[in-house]
Amino acid sequence: MKKRKPAYRSLKTRTKETREIIHALRTQQVDAIVGRRQVMLVRLKQVEENLQSSRDQLRALAANLLSVRENERAVIARELHDEFGQALTHLHLGLSWISRKLTPAQQPLQEKIRSLSATTTSLIQSVKNIARELRPGVLDELGLVKTLKSEAREFEGHTGIHCGFRTNTAKTNLDRTVAVAIFRIVQAALTNIARHAHASRAFIALMKRKSALILTVMDNGKGISRKLIYSHDSLGITGMRERTLALGGTFTLKGARTSGTMLTVRIPLSRVAVHF
Ligand SMILES: Nc1ncnc2c1ncn2[C@@H]1O[C@H](COP(=O)(O)OP(=O)(O)O)[C@@H](O)[C@H]1O
Ligand SMILES: [Mg+2]
């Protein structure tokens, strides 16, 4: 027994040492793994933060571009109206003047002038339409609700697609930036319906709810795929989304082959600055 004791002891010691080594190895490895994971998490967090800040920058840039574009449109509209509009009116008056000076014997000339006069009148109307499209001056004159009503009527007239409109905001005075954004979104949505939807009906609703102003534009056409909704090539849709996000709102577009397309824009009332 006495002889076995040292061997037994050394076995015990060695087992203990081995356990310690295994423990050390395990814990070190675990430490290493945990350490690596920690580093990865930190890196991931950094990447996420960078991505978020790039997104914020892009969003701010888009908002800035939209407002620059709106201002430039206003300048071009004014130039068009003042320069071209006035020059064309001058031309029209000149043609009338010449026409009055002609004798009945100068019939061919008279006819030519009548035709030029008609072209000038139609050009004056086109310039007015383009200026109106560029700068929604009607928004200031009529307010958003009446403007949307008249857009719906005009859309119906142009396309033959029946277009309903409903709102509970007739007495609400909206912030102009919000009104312009909603007007532009409706314009783009109606253009899309006319161009792509093959619909027979469209509907616009602008409703003030408890905490948000909600715009919906829907049609009963062929619907839209997810791919198109999120495609980088869908610049019209991207523009509508950016206008909404610039106002702190949310933008959703849903399409189903059987039930058409529905666009929803929600803008928090806190951003809408509603006055009664
Ligand atoms: N109301 C709709 N119904 C069916 N398809 C639509 C509708 N709106 C948009 N789309 C589809 O989404 C695409 C992208 O729209 P948009 O970004 O406005 O670009 P664009 O009108 O210049 O093609 C359209 O080309 C069309 O295929
Ligand atoms: Mg479009």
Question: What's the topology here?
Answer:
Blueprint: H1 4-101, H2 107-134, H3 137-142, H4 144-159, E1 162-167, H5 176-197, E2 201-208, E3 212-219, H6 226-230, H7 235-246, E4 250-256, E5 260-268, H8 269-272
Parallel strand pairs: 1-2
Antiparallel strand pairs: 2-3, 3-5, 4-5
The site of adenosine-5'-diphosphate has 15 residues, from helix 5 and helix 7.
Q: Structural class, judged by helices and strands?
A: alpha+beta
Q: What portion of residues belong to β-strands?
A: 5-15%
Number of strands: 5
Task: State the helical fraction.
Answer: 55-70%
- Supply Rg: 34 Å
Q: How are the strands of the largest sheet arranged?
A: 1-2-3-5-4
Cα shape: elongated
Low-confidence spans:
none
CATH topology of the largest domain: Heat Shock Protein 90
The CATH class designation of the largest domain is: Alpha Beta
Query: In CATH terms, what is the architecture of the largest domain?
Result: 2-Layer Sandwich
| Superfamily (CATH H level) name of the largest domain | Histidine kinase-like ATPase, C-terminal domain
- Please report the number of helical segments: 8
Could you tell me how far the N terminus lies from the C terminus, measured between alpha carbons in angstroms? 104 Å
Average pLDDT metric: 88
